[in-house]
Model the fold of this input.
Amino acid sequence: MLNGIQNIIMNNKSIIVEKGSLVGKVKVSGAKNSALRLLAASILTKEKVELNNFPNGLLDVQVHLEMLKVLGKDFISNGDSVIITEIESEITTLLWEDRSIRNTLLILGSLTTRFGEGRVPLPGGCKLGERKYDLHVMLLEELGAEVWEEGDYLCARSKDGRLKATDIHLPMRSTGATENAILCASLAIGKTTIWNPHIRPEIMDLIDLMGKMGAKIKVFGQKCIVVEGVEQLSSAKHDVIPDNMEALTWAIGAVITDGEVEIENFPFEHLEVPMVYLRESGMNFYRGNNSLIVRGGSAYPVEISTGPYPGINSDMQPLFAVYGSKSKGQSKIVDLRFPGRYGYAEELAKMGLNYEVQGDLLVINGGTTLKGATVEALDLRAGIALLLAGLTAEGETVITNSWQILRGYENLELKLKGMGITLKTE
Done:
């Protein structure tokens, strides 16, 4: 299902970007960060799960769907929908030698709560610093499972064949741990209370799907989530929420390239805080019924700190850094969730970015004209930041390791072409 530029990029080809303005119309795909969680939830039932507004073209999504096949599932993809069915039950080991993704932790939780045990490759994906999985181990243990490492695999087994409800106190607002706690508690015996959860759109999308499957879940704001375990979950049909990261990418891109873009399927309710910052920092935009029209603007310096939803999340800060690079003045960014996640700034410096890191603070001295260079996409978000910077730079920008971008941006080549930008490869 991966074709065209995706196959080229997977074969370690580089993307070549030239200066240009984003002009045209683009539709936001279903959210990557939501889609992967929903696929993990499909493991909880033997019945059919149908997902619409689904980003079939994403690399991470295709990896996850192939993982489901290994676990006895099958799927039919058609356009922006996927139907998942079960062919063989009670396969509890994910034998996987290809590239892993961090979502394997959620697969482990789903296998353990449904079948009493699970075995998955140790998680991979983006290297964002000290991202460990001890919270996931903690919640599984508190629900009555034994957890251990076995070579390159992480294993879990319920001591009594089925997880048992408990109070789970998360020491920090972790998206992944909240999701895994919900998955694990859905089929556990009794009522589980998840304290200090991270309530954000992707979490609510997961809860929405699981409610349709028959799960009993109540949300009490950022205080707690209460899950009453049920015997089994059933079939469901669900629409995936729009991808707020993609939407923000095109909005920022329109400003820094002095373009004009109509962004369809724009998730206004999920981007209220970032859009306030951008409006106050020079973005000109107009809201339609289901779209956002961005008519350029002048980028002013930004000062942001990342934090839990509805604040600016860590994935957004590389985009704000590129925005700051185009502003005449000093921008400051601090990532409270993943301190020091500024590796992309060193890559931008190859293009002429003037920056310094002061402790956990990234300081950008904007207004310098960027010049094309050969840079590396260290992760998904760094990759798209480099692509946007390349659209503003003089000359050609060559992005190596560019397959990273395909993990989170569906139909990237076609969407950019619809906005007047043609990518080349080498």
Remarks:
- Residues 156 and 162 are 12 Å apart (CA to CA).
- DSSP finds 14 helices and 23 strands in the chain.
